[in-house]
Design brief:
Elements (H helix, E strand, L loop, with lengths): L1 H10 L1 H32 L10 E6 L11 H15 L4 E7 L9 E7 L2 E10 L3 H5 L5 E2 L12 E6 H8 L8 E5 L2 E9 L14 E5 L12 E6 L7 H12 L5 E5 H44 L1 H9 L4 H27 L2 H4 L7 H31 L3 H7 L1
Helix pairs in contact: 1-9, 2-7, 2-9, 2-11, 3-6, 7-11, 8-12, 9-11
């Protein structure tokens, strides 16, 4: 039976080629959309590791070259800005950061550890950053004045970075890196920190301490300000005026972190939404094209199907034959698509997708394609099952 169906599909290869191509591309797009959706849904349920509510980001326009030594005068100027901001009753706390959450700015690098290359994400922050973002260490402590008395440069890791770098060992007190100007030593561990927001996957986060009275850490051009609940937006003007009085040559731009979050979510969801629209369009084309081709095929094959009925085939047998032909078309397309999809992990594409999401997307795409093709073949196969031997004579 399978050999017979293969011959039937091959003999109509020109008519079936377009349908197979449409099913093939539909499978690929469906896989991408479903896998991304499953991954984002799983990421959404994980905690962020910080609290963005009632936080403003103040962007300062001075440029800092990471390779150049930042003048102490500039660090002291930023320190005065933070002191002036804290003087407002509306402000709970202020801190400096190089790459704040939802900012689309990232500092990354690879680290060699026990023969493994580990991808790390970095941020340089001042002592009050954990207070502003409401981050509580689960091991050790956060940066503080006690770090001024030691020659070691303190480092705080999130749990993901601690696990990647030190495994099950306690990282507190261990050397993170040895540099010419001193040892970088771990002083604390915070919960998993997802800088890019709810839809972002796992990151290995490392925090470096920035001192404002000496050359320690890379001074960033962002201040994060935690405000008391109920603070109105008109406070922006007063805050900028006060900061401008400290640094007249600097231009300040304030963004609310909840608005930054919405922009980041839209940016990450845009490709998925676009893919879903393309997938819906392709599936509609497949449904209409497959139904039309099968309907036309049944009409043209009246003599063949009527002859089968005359030789003793039942209506259910003919019905099943047409559905199997449809399933065979889908199988040819899906096999070609599966060959490509299964190469993605080997090539490092979709590396941000977990194995569970990859498997779910693959199985869900298969189920969707087969359900669609069988559904499209129900009515044409029902028409074929109603043909009688006399219909073949009438066709002549």
């Amino acid at each position: 039976m399978i050999r017979h169906l293969l011959k039937l599909v091959w003999n109509r290869k020109r008519a079936n080629a377009l349908i197979i191509a449409e099913i093939f591309f539909s499978f690929l797009v469906l896989f991408a959309v479903i896998t991304a959706t499953v991954t984002f849904a799983a990421n959404w349920r994980r905690p962020l590791g910080y609290d963005y509510s009632n936080v403003w980001n103040v962007r300062m326009d001075f440029d800092i070259d990471a390779r150049a030594k930042v003048p102490v005068e500039l660090r002291q100027s930023v320190g005065r800005m933070m002191t002036e901001a804290r003087s407002f009753p509306e402000v709970e706390s202020v801190a400096g950061t190089n790459t704040p959450p939802y900012s689309f700015s990232t500092s990354e690098g690879s680290w060699e550890r026990k023969g493994r290359r580990i991808r790390l994400m970095f941020d340089d922050v001042t002592d009050d950053y954990a207070k502003v973002m409401r981050m509580k260490p689960i091991r050790g402590r956060w940066f503080g004045p006690e770090d001024d008395a030691t020659k070691d440069q303190p480092v705080v890791l999130d749990v993901n970075a601690a696990e990647e770098l030190f495994g099950n060992e306690d990282p507190i007190g261990k050397v993170f890196d040895q540099q010419d100007d001193g040892v970088m030593r771990v002083v604390g561990v915070v919960p998993a920190y997802r800088k890019d927001g709810e839809l972002a996957g796992r990151h290995n986060m490392v925090f470096h301490r920035v001192a404002l009275d000496r050359d320690l850490g890379r001074l960033g051009s962002n201040l994060v300000v935690r405000l008391r609940p109920g603070t109105h937006a008109d406070f922006e003007e007063r805050l900028v005026s006060r900061l401008q009085s400290v640094a007249p040559t600097v231009t300040f731009r304030i963004r609310h972190m909840d608005a930054m979050r919405e922009s980041a979510l839209r940016f990450r969801l845009a490709p998925v939404i676009a893919g879903a629209i393309v997938a819906a369009f392709l599936i509609s084309m497949v449904a209409l094209g497959l139904t039309g081709v099968l309907w036309q095929s049944v009409t043209k094959r009246t003599r063949e199907l009527g002859l089968r009925r005359a030789m003793g085939a039942t209506g259910s047998t003919v019905h099943r034959q047409i559905l199997l032909e449809v399933a065979l078309l889908a199988t040819v397309a899906v096999i070609a698509g599966a060959v490509i999809v299964l190469q993605l992990p080997i090539l490092g594409i979709f590396a941000w997708v977990t194995p569970a999401a990859f498997t779910t997307g693959f199985i869900a795409s298969l189920a969707t394609i087969y359900s669609l093709t069988v559904l499209c073949g129900l009515y044409p196969s029902w028409l074929a099952s109603r043909l009688m031997p006399a219909d073949a004579l009438r066709y002549e």
